[in-house]
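Marked as duplicate of an earlier ticket. Keeping the data here for the record.
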Amino acid sequence: MPRSLTNNTNLQYSIEETLGNLFASPSWFTLEPNDISSFGANISTVARNPISKNRQRRKGTITNIESSVEINADLTMSSLQDFIEGFCFSAFSGGDILTATDVATGVVTMAETSNIIVNTLVRVTGLTATADNGLHVVTAVTVDTSITIAALTDVTENFLVEVVGHRFAVGDLDVLDANNLTTTSQDLTLLGLVAGQSVHVGGFLAANQFAAADNSGLIRVSSVAANVLTFDKALTTFTTEADASQLIDMYFGKFVRNVPTDNPNYIERSYQFELEYATLDAGDLPMYEYARGNLCNELTFETPLTDKATLAPGFIGTDTAPPVNVAGRATNAATPTDPQYTTAFNTSADIARIRVADVDDTGLTSDFKSLSITINNNVTPENVLGVTGAKYINAGNLEIGFEAEMIFSNSVVAERIRSNATVSLDFRLTNDDGTIAFDIPSLTLGGGARSFPVNETVLISTTGEAYADDAFNTSIGITIFNHALPIDPANPFL
């Protein structure tokens, strides 16, 4: 008799064109869940229960369908990027990945050159000549026609060009003071940077770094003018330096944050999921179940002690239809794209920075035993007469919160809880696939209960509630670098 084993189950998703409806030629993406805790329709029925000498109920009727999808997965670069735009209700800024079609004498043919200017740093992937893949500098641009990368071998094939940063001309980028970088000629507004975004100052080689060791690493962009970039949240205190001879590198990534509904980046993205039951049909053939019209409801990041970091996305949808055989399978579902960045982040060696700080960037504590961050969109289904199940899905107000257990090493933490003071949280992870920088710019702390484990350090448990930051008008910002960043071995923290 047919049955379906959990270990033979496959889950994938596609972005919908409209709520509950796929594009004419949809793209599907494979997921790697550790657990599928909810999938499918929950059917509500109401039975007839008449007063009768028969003393029995009559057949009832279906009154509602509630559909949801909830999974748990290891935190990887790919698993984060699958849905983070949907949970933030905002499209990525930066990190453009463009398709090139051939190379002839260093001239790369491209139909689009978005955010590429002279001296843009790009990462090339997908070339057959693997030695040509990697970091390159663009030396010329013909808008929406071609770019020039002199080092590339002549080829006629498709490959990808990803914008990852900028290399400033000799002497053009200076450190004005602890919070400002200045240029003489390069218009910084052309780099596509967004306030709240993290960028990395300094390259892999001494020739692409400032001379002062403190003038490097990740910083948070506060504002960008034509010739001034103001920043904060640097690991070190930058010191005045007029660059004389170096070609300073600056690295960017994809940046996403919650935005107002009238912001150009605002999106309401819905997803459709396909669950494959490998041997459910007659003859041990597969069957497929589709959860439609899913909006991102709640996403939780967990970082337990000495373990893997995980994420648990939950969705609320309009309907999940009964399984169908292969003849009813969705278009293109048989050819999904597998995840590219699959290295899990661990919670010891891969955490590059974790701390609660005052608004003036004075650190309060970085001694965490555990940390859980939650993004909640308060999504609810909307029912109307004449429709079984939800016709609409409503998104409520965004809520960002965290729960943490920390070593009680600074009494000021308890004072900040008591005074309802504004603090911030920044959290960075890095592995061979890249770096993720979380930033919650404004929040208040709650809780504060202490625990006293025998033969251990006193602990304090806290909660945090984020709110719209006065400067950035956002509750969370996440920068994703899908590539290695320069790390000083003497100071490995980013």
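See parent ticket for discussion. Residues 173-252 form one domain.
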